[in-house]
Amino acid sequence: MIEFSGLKLINTFMKIPFGFKENRLWFVTDVSNGAKCNCTCPKCDAPLQAKNNPNNIKIPHFAHLAHADCSYSGMTDVHLMAQQILLEHQSRRTPEFRDTPSLLLKDGGRIYGNEVIIPPAWIEAQATVLEYSWKGFQIDVAFPIGDKQLLMEIAVTYFIEPEKRRAVVKGDVAMIEIDLSGILSKDLFDKEAFTAKVLSPGELAVWINNPKGNALVKKGRKLLEPQQLHQNSLITKEEEKRAQKEQRKVEKELERKKRIAE
Ligand SMILES: [Zn+2]
Question: Is the pLDDT of residue 80 over 70?
Answer without folding.
Answer: yes
